[in-house]
Design brief:
By secondary structure, the protein is mainly alpha-helical. Helices cover 61% and strands 4% of the residues. It has two domains: 70 residues, no CATH class; 108 residues, no CATH class. Strands 1-2 form a two-stranded antiparallel sheet. It has nine helices and two strands; from the N terminus they run H-H-E-E-H-H-H-H-H-H-H. Helix 4 crosses helix 6 and helix 5 runs antiparallel to helix 6.
C-alpha cells in the first residue's frame, strides 16, 4: 500500500512568483465557471488536433481550490482518499517540509505527534508555506496509524491468544504471526491493514 501511495501522491512544491500570478488569473476565470453544474469544455490552443477536453464539474472546483492556494504562494499536494500515508511516509513528509522549523522552534519538544502539532501551530507566523501545507496532513496520518494500531488488540484478540499464543498487551510481538497465520478473521485482517501492517 505504501508503494502505491507514493506513486499516486504528488510531492508539495512551492509555486514561483510567475506561477502564483498565473494561478490567480486562471483561478478567477474558473471560479466563475465552477458555479454551474455542467462539465467544462476546454480547447487546447497549442494542439488543435487534440480536439475538445471535458472536465467534470467536481474536478473544476478542485482545480479552483488548488489555484487559490497557489496564488497565495502555498505548496499543494493531492492524495486520493483511499491512499492514506503510511507512518514512514508521513514522517518523511514532515521531516522534509518542516525539518528547519522542528529544529529551530521545537527542539526541546518530545517528538510526540500531539505535542509536535501544538508546537508547529504555535509558531505558524514563522513557519514556511511548505511546512504549513504539509504538517497537519502528515501528523494526522501518523495519529490515525497510532489509533489504528491500538484497535488491532481488540479486533484480533482471538487470533493473538488462540492462534499466535501471545498477549494483547504486547500486540506488536504477534504481528508477524498474524500476517502469515491461517484462520484470521476479516475484522482482524482489516484492522491490520488500517494500522499499516499489511
Amino acid at each position: 500500500m505504501g508503494h502505491g501511495t507514493q506513486e499516486r501522491t504528488l510531492a508539495p512544491t512551492l509555486p514561483s512568483k510567475a506561477e502564483a500570478i498565473l494561478a490567480k488569473e486562471t483561478g478567477r476565470v474558473l471560479a466563475a465557471r465552477s458555479q454551474t453544474t455542467d462539465p467544462l469544455q476546454l480547447r487546447l490552443l497549442d494542439d488543435p488536433s487534440a480536439g475538445t477536453v471535458t472536465l467534470p464539474t467536481s474536478a473544476v472546483r478542485m482545480l479552483v481550490h488548488i489555484l487559490e492556494e497557489m496564488a497565495l504562494g502555498n505548496a499543494v499536494t493531492l492524495i486520493p482518499v483511499h491512499a492514506e500515508l503510511t507512518t514512514q511516509e508521513a514522517a518523511a513528509m514532515l521531516a522534509k517540509g518542516c525539518g528547519t522549523e522542528i529544529t529551530s522552534y521545537c527542539r526541546g519538544v518530545n517528538l510526540d505527534a500531539n505535542r509536535l502539532k501544538e508546537c508547529l501551530s504555535r509558531n505558524q507566523d514563522v513557519t514556511s508555506p511548505t511546512c504549513k501545507s504539509t504538517y497537519l496532513q502528515a501528523i494526522d496520518a501518523i495519529q490515525k496509524r497510532i489509533a489504528a494500531r491500538v484497535t488491532v488488540a481488540n479486533a484480533c484478540t482471538r487470533e493473538i491468544v488462540k492462534i499466535c499464543h501471545g498477549s494483547t498487551k504486547e500486540t506488536s510481538k504477534s504481528v508477524p504471526c498474524l500476517m502469515t497465520a491461517q484462520g484470521v478473521s476479516k475484522n482482524c485482517t482489516q484492522a491490520m491493514s488500517d494500522a499499516g501492517y499489511r
